Amino acid sequence: MKKIPQSLRQWFVLHFIVDITFGVPLMIAPIWTLELFNFTSVETLTARLVAAALIGIGTTSLMMHKGNLESFHTMLNLKIIWSISAMTGILWTILEGTLPSTAWLIFGIFAVFSIAWIHFKISLKNL
User: Fold this and answer.
1) C-alpha 71: how far from its chain's center?
2) Cα(101)–Cα(119) distance, integer angstroms
3) Where are the domains of the chain?
4) pLDDT per residue over 93-127, tens digit each?
5) Residue partners of 114: CB distance under 8 A and separation at least 6
6) N or C: which terminal CB in the chain sees fewer CB atoms within 10 Å?
7) Which residues are within 8 A (CB) of 108 and not within 5 positions of it... i.e. 6 or more apart?
8) Furthest-apart CA pair in the chain: how many Å?
9) How far is CA 108 from CA 70, 87, 104, in A?
10) Residue 39: count of CB within 10 angstroms of its CB
11) Is 14 within 8 Å of 54 (Cβ atoms)?
Protein backbone atom coordinates (compact mmCIF):
# COMPACT_ATOMS: atom_id res chain seq x y z
CA MET A 1 0.00 0.00 0.00
CA LYS A 2 1.33 3.42 -0.94
CA LYS A 3 1.71 5.93 1.86
CA ILE A 4 -0.19 9.23 1.83
CA PRO A 5 2.07 12.11 2.93
CA GLN A 6 1.38 13.22 6.49
CA SER A 7 1.47 16.84 5.28
CA LEU A 8 -1.52 16.16 2.99
CA ARG A 9 -3.46 14.64 5.87
CA GLN A 10 -2.65 17.76 7.92
CA TRP A 11 -3.84 20.03 5.09
CA PHE A 12 -7.15 18.14 5.10
CA VAL A 13 -7.54 18.79 8.84
CA LEU A 14 -6.60 22.46 8.35
CA HIS A 15 -9.16 22.71 5.54
CA PHE A 16 -11.81 21.32 7.90
CA ILE A 17 -10.91 23.93 10.54
CA VAL A 18 -11.03 26.83 8.05
CA ASP A 19 -14.28 25.65 6.44
CA ILE A 20 -16.02 25.16 9.80
CA THR A 21 -14.68 28.48 11.12
CA PHE A 22 -16.35 30.31 8.22
CA GLY A 23 -19.22 27.92 7.50
CA VAL A 24 -20.88 27.59 10.91
CA PRO A 25 -21.20 31.35 11.60
CA LEU A 26 -22.36 31.88 8.04
CA MET A 27 -25.07 29.25 8.56
CA ILE A 28 -26.19 30.46 11.99
CA ALA A 29 -25.88 34.24 11.56
CA PRO A 30 -25.39 34.99 7.85
CA ILE A 31 -26.08 38.73 7.98
CA TRP A 32 -23.78 39.31 10.97
CA THR A 33 -21.00 37.18 9.41
CA LEU A 34 -21.26 38.89 6.04
CA GLU A 35 -21.18 42.33 7.65
CA LEU A 36 -17.85 41.40 9.30
CA PHE A 37 -16.42 41.23 5.77
CA ASN A 38 -18.31 44.33 4.58
CA PHE A 39 -20.69 42.30 2.38
CA THR A 40 -24.09 43.97 2.49
CA SER A 41 -25.95 42.82 -0.58
CA VAL A 42 -25.84 39.01 -0.25
CA GLU A 43 -29.14 37.21 0.09
CA THR A 44 -29.44 35.01 3.21
CA LEU A 45 -30.25 31.81 1.30
CA THR A 46 -27.17 32.25 -0.90
CA ALA A 47 -25.00 32.74 2.18
CA ARG A 48 -26.39 29.59 3.79
CA LEU A 49 -25.86 27.58 0.61
CA VAL A 50 -22.20 28.64 0.65
CA ALA A 51 -22.09 27.71 4.34
CA ALA A 52 -23.51 24.28 3.52
CA ALA A 53 -20.80 23.72 0.89
CA LEU A 54 -18.07 24.79 3.32
CA ILE A 55 -19.42 22.59 6.10
CA GLY A 56 -19.93 19.62 3.76
CA ILE A 57 -16.53 19.76 2.08
CA GLY A 58 -14.70 20.60 5.31
CA THR A 59 -16.36 17.85 7.32
CA THR A 60 -15.71 15.32 4.55
CA SER A 61 -12.04 16.35 4.68
CA LEU A 62 -11.92 15.55 8.38
CA MET A 63 -13.84 12.28 7.99
CA MET A 64 -11.55 10.91 5.31
CA HIS A 65 -8.17 12.44 6.20
CA LYS A 66 -7.01 8.93 7.11
CA GLY A 67 -8.36 7.44 3.89
CA ASN A 68 -6.60 5.54 1.13
CA LEU A 69 -4.88 6.78 -2.01
CA GLU A 70 -7.98 6.49 -4.20
CA SER A 71 -10.13 8.48 -1.77
CA PHE A 72 -7.49 11.23 -1.65
CA HIS A 73 -7.40 11.44 -5.45
CA THR A 74 -11.19 11.76 -5.55
CA MET A 75 -11.33 14.36 -2.78
CA LEU A 76 -8.47 16.36 -4.31
CA ASN A 77 -10.38 16.47 -7.60
CA LEU A 78 -13.39 17.91 -5.76
CA LYS A 79 -11.24 20.43 -3.85
CA ILE A 80 -9.44 21.59 -7.00
CA ILE A 81 -12.69 22.05 -8.92
CA TRP A 82 -14.34 23.81 -5.96
CA SER A 83 -11.44 26.18 -5.28
CA ILE A 84 -10.84 27.14 -8.91
CA SER A 85 -14.57 27.64 -9.51
CA ALA A 86 -14.83 29.77 -6.37
CA MET A 87 -11.80 31.84 -7.38
CA THR A 88 -13.28 32.35 -10.84
CA GLY A 89 -16.58 33.53 -9.37
CA ILE A 90 -14.91 35.82 -6.86
CA LEU A 91 -12.57 37.36 -9.43
CA TRP A 92 -15.38 37.81 -11.96
CA THR A 93 -17.50 39.60 -9.39
CA ILE A 94 -14.57 41.76 -8.21
CA LEU A 95 -13.98 42.81 -11.83
CA GLU A 96 -17.65 43.78 -12.11
CA GLY A 97 -17.00 46.16 -9.22
CA THR A 98 -19.70 44.73 -6.97
CA LEU A 99 -17.62 43.34 -4.09
CA PRO A 100 -15.84 45.05 -1.21
CA SER A 101 -12.05 44.90 -1.00
CA THR A 102 -12.31 42.15 1.61
CA ALA A 103 -13.22 39.82 -1.28
CA TRP A 104 -9.49 39.70 -2.05
CA LEU A 105 -8.91 38.04 1.33
CA ILE A 106 -11.44 35.34 0.50
CA PHE A 107 -9.91 34.97 -2.96
CA GLY A 108 -6.50 34.58 -1.31
CA ILE A 109 -7.70 31.84 1.02
CA PHE A 110 -9.10 29.90 -1.92
CA ALA A 111 -5.86 30.50 -3.87
CA VAL A 112 -3.66 29.11 -1.07
CA PHE A 113 -5.78 25.99 -0.80
CA SER A 114 -5.97 25.62 -4.58
CA ILE A 115 -2.19 25.72 -4.89
CA ALA A 116 -1.86 23.15 -2.11
CA TRP A 117 -4.43 20.81 -3.68
CA ILE A 118 -2.84 21.00 -7.12
CA HIS A 119 0.61 20.41 -5.60
CA PHE A 120 -0.59 17.32 -3.75
CA LYS A 121 -2.52 16.01 -6.75
CA ILE A 122 0.66 16.16 -8.83
CA SER A 123 2.68 14.61 -5.99
CA LEU A 124 0.25 11.71 -5.58
CA LYS A 125 0.61 10.80 -9.26
CA ASN A 126 4.16 9.73 -8.42
CA LEU A 127 3.04 7.27 -5.73
Assistant:
1) 18
2) 28
3) 6-125
4) 999 988 888 999 999 999 999 999 999 999 998 76
5) 80, 83, 84, 87
6) N
7) none
8) 50
9) 28, 9, 6
10) 17
11) no
User: Taking 90 as the threshold, does the pLDDT of residue 40 lie above it?
Assistant: no
Q: Is the pLDDT of residue 1 over 70?
A: no
Q: Specify burial of residue 101 (Cβ count, 10 A radius: 0-12, 13-18, 19+).
A: exposed
Q: What is the mean pLDDT of residues 59-64?
A: 92
